[in-house]
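Quality-control log, excerpt.
Job 1 of 2 completed; input and output follow.
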Amino acid sequence: MIIGVLNSGGDCPGLNAVIEGVVGAATRRGWKVIGFYDGFEGLLSEEGNDKFEYLTPAKCRGLRAKGGTILGTVNKGNFAIKVGVGQKGEIEPAVLEKTKQTVKRLGLDALIVVGGDGSQSTALLLSEIGLPVVGVPKTIDNDLGATDVTFGFNSAVEVVSESLDRLETTANAHQRMMVVEVMGRHAGWIALQGGIAGSADVILLPEIPFTLENVVKSIEERKAAGQREILVVVSEGARLADELILLDEKTQGEVRLGGIGKVIAKKLEDATGIETRACVLGHTQRGGSPCSYDRILGVRFGSYAVQLVAEEKFSYMVALRGGEMVPVSIEEAVETLKLVDPDCQLVQTARDLGVCFGD
């Protein structure tokens, strides 16, 4: 067999680990693996202008420890159909026809697509034209309901935790407040877990409505008790007065979030009189080598995706449930976002530690 693999959507730690898992499992079965460059765009290869390479275990040796992806990835282009949760987009007929020609020319028997809900929705459209696909979930936001966890998430949490450790020392030295903005469009998992690990005093999430008055009250109580430093963590998708804070840019139908950290910092400084600094971690959460957990999870996902190909379980996505790998239909996988339950044990643990959610 000849199978393809590609990464689509945003990058995150662990993508290379998935590739290594795919190549290792496929090679053991005597199959060939084609890695397509820059997401689905690689499927538009033409003779003399190929956008792919044949991958071997020798080329992928030790790949699991490297950040980024050797294949590259894009979240826009000819295959970008993201129009919102639960909505279905379309791919231009000419693009689909060119994809068919590439598949036929290369003798491709199946395609493993590593990506989030938008990428998996694109994979489903390709399956409708006869290309057998298997999905691998990818998002540092950890917001896909079909799987217990996605690779890259734990690495992002470690970045947040380490950053808070560093910011705590400088905040303590100057008796400052630090407001740290982290990723999380719809779901606040990074802020929640990173905030708990990094001893945040305040954690603001998209799922828990908050008021500045409640946050200010909590901060003033801490200062009155003699605390020198204040650490506030806020998800980029948290709503201030029920409004999202947006950047000016707009890409592929989705507005770009960002800037809430700076806005919150100014308002809290004005209300409390505490010298405040804002820090946006941004793409540092996506970069760098994956943590050991994500290296293992990545190769497991890649290996199991090959197993699903061998079992001809197409239009399925691999998922981790209860510590075991299981297949979930891609259609089911992209239906539901996994959001933070305000009443979950993790939130309750944070409350028991004195964390303020502003509600």
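Job 2 of 2 completed; input and output follow.
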Amino acid sequence: MNEIEQRLQREGLKLASFGKRIIAYLIDSLIINLLIIFTFYSDLSSLSYDVALNLAQDVLLSILLVNFLYHFIFTLLYGASLGKFVCKIAIIDENLLDKPNFIQSALRSAVRLLSENAFMLGYFWAFGNDSRKAWQDYAAKTVVIELA
């Protein structure tokens, strides 16, 4: 048992399971994709595939911004995204055992985007360590815990 797990155990907390984290990721991805589809639906509904592909490339920055803001705002305000709420898991500062601060939330959201766009390598990293920490958790010094 590593130091983080010992601290969590002393406080009656435990690390979130991989299964719950994966389900939360899928729920969040669905929500973000629906937001993007509804935002750009009028532009996409009457376009051919080639024109739609060009539009997607043009709005790539908007898509990344929506993704970043979704995770940043929910992490900052609640310590959990909607997917994490559904799965009853949360993000906490590994030192204070409280929800992440502004800098941690921003850093975690930015590294999360990097991890997703690097073929999910940052997520697979979590399988190789006892703390189940992905790149964004290492960067922001956070852990994901079970709430129930």
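Post-run check on job 2. The CA atoms of residues 26 and 83 lie 8 Å apart.
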